[in-house]
Design brief:
Blueprint lengths: L1 H9 L7 H12 L4 H11 L3 H10 L11 E6 L2 H5 L2 H12 L12 E6 L10 E4 L2 E4 L3 H10 L2
Parallel strand pairs: 1-2
Antiparallel strand pairs: 1-3, 3-4
Length: 148
């Protein structure tokens, strides 16, 4: 909890910075554990249900452990009509998980999103912070294998 306390202290225990604090914790831990939420509640004087409401409202937060690498596949309209469902199937096959799940080795989490903001590249996937437009099955496998 020292890490969580350090983050909270860096925001001077300001409960108005709750979302920023949650984002920082999410970035460092890759998820928001019940113990972390309880600690935030205690230190900031914010009810736990309010923290859970925020954590479940924003897709950026996860209440279950996530992999070291995030894989997102866009299912927005432009990507969908260009074959996003097939792309999801190919990624699922390589990772051997369904969207919303994390690989057993905690290396990858797979998500589907409504838009990645690069419709012209569709269908598009993102691995961590890198975008890949219409990757071939062999390219998907290489991308995944190249992650440490």
């Amino acid at each position: 909890m020292k890490q969580v306390d350090r983050i909270i202290d860096s925001y001077h225990n300001d409960k108005n910075a709750l979302i920023q604090i949650l984002l920082q914790i999410q970035k460092e831990n890759r998820w928001l554990s019940p113990a972390v939420i309880q600690r935030l509640s205690q230190k900031l004087g914010v009810p736990t249900n309010q923290i859970y409401n925020i954590a479940t409202f924003y897709k950026a937060f996860s209440l279950k452990p996530r992999g070291r690498h995030s894989v997102s596949v866009c299912l927005g309209t432009a990507c969908h009509v260009r074959g996003a469902p097939r792309l999801v199937d190919r990624v699922k096959e390589v990772l051997e998980v369904e969207p919303g799940e994390t690989t057993a080795d905690m290396k990858f989490s797979l998500e589907t999103v409504n838009c990645l903001g690069c419709c012209a590249l569709g269908p598009v996937m993102m691995v961590d912070d890198e975008y890949y437009g219409n990757p071939a099955p062999t390219e998907i496998k290489k991308l995944i294998e190249s992650c440490d």
